[in-house]
């Protein structure tokens, strides 16, 4: 720095040079009197020309956190743009942050430049005018750091945004978070659409909460134990053990969808079974206009209602197949007759033909012989004419 030359200038001239340098670093360009030295990937040390008046110097340092925050956001945006492994939700967040920096932030900087050219701006006013945006930039920088350092993806990012929104009271910050969440949730809802309306896992970047264990990439990640077992089983219930192909990944379920996590899991499973039976569903005919949407006011509650309705529709579709195609009621009646009075003569026959085996201890019984006697009892009883005897 040419500090001696700067000291010899008037306070007004120093102030103009300080503002020019601040505007420069606010847009990512080093100023003549303010320079940044990168100490690490996440840390910059700002050096201010010591030739400035001490009061100006103090005000300049108060403005520098804005430059720190902008630098963190820009680095995050660039990293996500080049790393497609981070997923669609992360890219949507980075895109929204980029729009904020290029539009909202640059508009504020241009206003400062216009005022500077009109000689109606001081460093104190720069600090005052950017203070409202400082909270927003700091929030975005914190979100970027959390996503980057914790390697968050998909539903994890949505949970982070939802939690940040719930814990904030500043209306400007809440508005920014609504904007972020509204954009970030779009690619996630595409996967949710495919699952709850069609029973398909549409997730090439491992963002979504439902994984297909027959998918090579998803299966490999699970086998490598990158996803902890606790996360796999967090929502799984005994009632769903009939089909372990589709797994619910707990961490990838956004906080606002956790109340209906089981409904989401069942939706796709039921529809997948229906499709495996080769049944054409009405939903497919009109499916193109079925899209889940998010609104900043009541977005989560509206989603929950739609999902609950979709789960009921999927259940009805499955039960309809069981009742009509597989005649479930007739099967139940057959079981009732078999176990109760109607066809229980098989039991008396079985007890007679297997009397010697039944008298032994369970450990000593030949299972093959017992099974043969049971078949003999069935074939010699009224059950032999039951279409469901097998």
TrEMBL record:
This is Gamma-tubulin complex component. GO terms for molecular function: gamma-tubulin binding; microtubule minus-end binding. GO terms for biological process: cytoplasmic microtubule organization; meiotic cell cycle; microtubule nucleation; mitotic cell cycle; spindle assembly. GO terms for cellular component: gamma-tubulin complex; microtubule; spindle pole. Belongs to the TUBGCP family. PANTHER family: GAMMA TUBULIN COMPLEX PROTEIN, GAMMA-TUBULIN COMPLEX COMPONENT 2. It comes from the Eukaryota. It comes from Plectus sambesii. Pfam families: GCP_N_terminal. Residues 19-324 form the Gamma tubulin complex component protein N-terminal domain. Keywords: Cytoplasm, Cytoskeleton, Microtubule. It is found in: Cytoplasm, Cytoskeleton, Microtubule organizing center. The keyword Cytoplasm applies. InterPro entries: GCP (IPR007259), GCP_C_sf (IPR042241), GCP_N (IPR041470).
């Amino acid at each position: 720095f040419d500090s001696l030359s700067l000291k010899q200038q008037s306070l007004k001239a120093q102030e103009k040079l300080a503002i020019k340098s601040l505007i420069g670093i606010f847009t990512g360009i080093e100023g003549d009197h303010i320079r940044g030295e990168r100490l690490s990937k996440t840390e910059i040390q700002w050096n201010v020309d010591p030739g400035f008046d001490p009061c100006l110097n103090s005000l300049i340092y108060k403005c520098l956190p804005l430059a720190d925050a902008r630098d963190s956001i820009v680095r995050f945006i660039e990293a996500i743009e080049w790393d497609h492994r981070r997923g669609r939700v992360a890219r949507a967040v980075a895109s929204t942050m980029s729009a904020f920096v290029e539009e909202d932030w640059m508009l504020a900087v241009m206003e400062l430049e216009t005022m500077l050219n009109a000689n109606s701006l001081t460093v104190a006013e720069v600090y005052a005018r950017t203070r409202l945006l400082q909270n927003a930039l700091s929030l975005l920088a914190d979100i970027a750091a959390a996503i980057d350092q914790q390697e968050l993806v998909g539903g994890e990012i949505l949970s982070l945004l939802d939690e940040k929104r719930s814990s904030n009271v500043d209306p400007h910050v809440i508005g920014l978070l609504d904007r972020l969440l509204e954009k970030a949730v779009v690619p996630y809802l595409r996967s949710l659409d495919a699952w709850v309306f069609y029973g398909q896992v549409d997730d090439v970047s491992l963002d979504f909460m439902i994984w297909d264990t027959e998918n090579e990439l998803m299966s490999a990640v699970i086998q490598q134990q990158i996803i902890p077992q606790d996360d796999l089983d967090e929502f799984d219930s005994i009632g769903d053990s009939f089909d372990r192909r589709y797994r619910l990944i707990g961490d990838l379920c956004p906080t606002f969808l956790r109340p209906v996590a089981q409904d989401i899991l069942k939706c796709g499973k039921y529809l997948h079974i229906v499709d495996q039976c080769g049944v054409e569903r009405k939903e497919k005919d009109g499916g193109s206009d079925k899209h889940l949407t998010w609104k900043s006011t009541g977005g989560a509650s509206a989603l929950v209602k739609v999902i609950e309705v979709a789960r009921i529709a999927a259940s009805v579709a499955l039960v309809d197949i069981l009742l009509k195609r597989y005649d479930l009621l007739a099967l139940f009646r057959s079981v009732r007759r078999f176990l109760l009075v109607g066809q229980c003569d098989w039991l008396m026959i079985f007890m007679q033909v297997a009397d010697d085996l039944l008298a032994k201890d369970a450990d000593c019984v030949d299972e093959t012989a017992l099974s043969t006697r049971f078949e003999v009892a069935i074939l010699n009883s009224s059950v032999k004419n039951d279409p469901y005897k097998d």
